[in-house]
Design goal:
Strand content: 5-15%
CATH class of the largest domain: Mainly Alpha
Structural class: alpha+beta
Largest sheet: 5 strands, mixed
Number of strands: 5
Number of domains: 2
Shape: elongated
Order of helices and strands: HHHHHHHHEHHEEHEHE
Length: about 400
C-alpha cells in the first residue's frame, strides 16, 4: 500500500482541529486550572497544524516558525496540566523543567529562523527541542508518584494509571521519531527546507512517514488520555464534595473516620504518640433560638475556619456532629491538646465578636492513643467522655480523658 505523506499531514491537520474542538467542548469554560492548561495545549497544537499547512502552501518561513512555536507551546501547556493533575510526582528537577518548558516555545522558533541558511542544523535543532519536550511530558506522566496522604481510592488509582499509560504511549514513539529525524539531519543527509518536508531519497521518505504515523498515533491517543485525566479529576472532586461538610468545608464524619485509619496505622507502625481532641460549640441551641438559624450557621462556619487555621500541619480536622468537631493530632504529646485549646480560644476571642457580633465559647475533651485501641471509636469514646465532664462542670474548658 502506498502512503502519500502530504495527505497524511492534511489528515493530521483535521485530526488536530477536531481533537481541540472536542476537548474544549467536553471540558467547557469552568474547568480546573489543569484542564484549562490542557485546553490551551490542544488549542496551540491546532494552531500549529494550521500554520504548518499555510507554510506548506506559501513557503513562508515565518509561518513555519509559528507552527513550531504552536507545537512547542502545546507540549509545554500539556506538561503543566500533567503536573497539576499529578501533584504527588517527584519534585526533583521541577524548577529546571519549568524554566525549560517556559523558554523553549520562544527560543526554539527564534533560533530556527536564525538558522535559515543552515538547513540540516535548524531541522536538527527543532526536532531535538520537540523530542526533549516530548520526553519530559512522558516522564511527568510515567514516573512513579510519591505516596499521597491520605491514600487515593483504588478506583482513582486505576483511572490515573490508564490515562498516564495512554499519554506515555502517545508521546514516547513520537519523541523517538523526532530524535531519529534530527539525527538524520545532523549527520548530513539530504533534508528539505521544511522541518517536516522530505526529499525523494528512500531514507528521508521513511523517516517522514514514520514522523507522520507517529504524530497520527499521538493525536489518536492524546485526546482519550486527556479526557480520562479530566474525568478522573472531576470524579475526585465529586468524591471530596460528597465527603465534605457543606457549611464548614471540613471533612464530614465518614471522611474523618476513613482518613483517621491512615494516621492511626502510621502512629502504631512508628510507635509515635497520637491524640484525639473533640470540641463542642457551647450554647449553639440558644444561639439558634435567640438569633436565628443563620446566626448559628455562621457561628459553626467561623468555628470550623478557626479550627482549620489553628491545627498543625499533618493533623486531621473534621465536623463529626451537629455542633461537634474533632482534631486527630499526629506526633502529639500531652502538651499538644492544651496548646490547641489555648490557640482556639484566642482566635475566637479575636474574631467572633468582630465577625458575628457576639462571643463564642466551646468545651473540649481529649484522649491519647493506647496500645489496646483497635479503632477510632475507642479513642472517640474516651475523648467524648472527657468532653461530657467538661460540659457537666460548667462548659468553656478542656478536660483530659480519665486517667490522664
Amino acid at each position: 500500500m502506498a502512503f502519500d505523506t502530504p495527505t497524511l499531514f492534511n489528515l493530521l491537520l483535521l485530526q488536530g482541529l477536531a481533537a481541540a474542538l472536542v476537548f474544549g467542548l467536553m471540558v467547557g469554560r469552568h474547568g480546573s486550572l489543569a484542564s484549562r492548561w490542557a485546553q490551551a495545549g490542544m488549542g496551540a497544537q491546532a494552531l500549529g497544524w494550521l500554520a504548518l499547512a499555510a507554510s506548506g502552501r506559501t513557503g513562508n518561513p515565518a509561518l513555519l516558525a509559528l507552527a513550531l512555536c504552536g507545537f512547542s507551546a502545546a507540549l509545554s501547556a500539556l506538561w503543566w496540566a500533567v503536573r497539576l493533575w499529578l501533584p504527588g510526582t517527584p519534585r526533583q528537577g521541577v524548577g529546571t523543567g519549568r524554566w525549560f518548558m517556559t523558554a523553549v516555545p520562544v527560543l526554539m522558533p527564534l533560533v530556527y529562523v536564525l538558522l535559515l541558511d543552515a538547513s540540516p542544523l535548524r531541522v536538527a535543532w527543532a526536532q531535538a527541542c520537540l523530542a526533549l519536550q516530548l520526553l519530559m511530558l512522558a516522564g511527568a506522566a510515567l514516573l512513579p508518584q510519591s505516596p499521597t496522604t491520605p491514600p487515593l481510592p483504588d478506583a482513582q488509582i486505576h483511572s490515573r494509571r490508564r490515562w498516564r499509560a495512554l499519554l506515555g504511549a502517545a508521546t514516547l514513539p513520537l519523541a523517538l521519531v523526532c530524535l531519529a529525524r534530527g539525527g538524520e539531519a545532523i549527520t548530513g543527509m539530504t533534508v528539505a527546507s521544511s522541518v517536516f518536508a522530505v526529499s525523494h531519497t528512500n531514507s528521508n521518505i521513511n523517516t517522514a512517514l514514520a514522523l507522520a504515523l507517529a504524530a497520527q498515533l499521538a493525536l489518536s491517543l492524546l485526546l482519550p488520555a486527556l479526557l480520562l485525566a479530566w474525568r478522573a479529576e472531576a470524579e475526585g472532586q465529586w468524591a471530596r464534595l460528597a465527603q465534605t461538610d457543606g457549611l464548614t468545608g471540613l471533612p464530614d464524619c465518614r471522611a474523618f473516620a476513613e482518613r483517621a485509619v491512615h494516621l492511626i496505622s502510621m502512629a502504631r507502625r512508628h510507635q509515635e504518640p497520637l491524640a484525639l481532641m473533640v470540641l463542642d460549640l457551647d450554647l449553639l441551641t440558644a444561639i439558634n433560638a435567640e438569633r436565628g438559624q443563620d446566626a448559628g450557621d455562621r457561628a459553626l462556619a467561623l468555628f470550623g475556619g478557626c479550627l482549620q487555621a489553628q491545627m498543625r500541619l499533618g493533623d486531621l480536622v473534621g465536623r463529626v456532629g451537629g455542633d461537634e468537631f474533632a482534631v486527630l493530632m499526629a506526633r502529639c504529646d500531652a502538651l499538644g491538646p492544651p496548646a490547641m485549646d489555648e490557640r482556639m480560644r484566642a482566635a475566637l476571642a479575636t474574631q467572633a465578636t468582630a465577625t458575628l457580633g457576639f462571643a463564642l465559647d466551646f468545651s473540649a475533651g481529649w484522649a491519647k492513643l493506647r496500645p489496646g485501641d483497635r479503632h477510632l471509636d475507642d479513642l472517640m469514646l474516651r475523648a467524648e467522655a472527657a468532653l461530657y465532664i467538661a460540659k457537666r462542670d460548667g462548659r468553656g474548658r478542656w478536660v483530659a480523658e480519665p486517667g490522664l
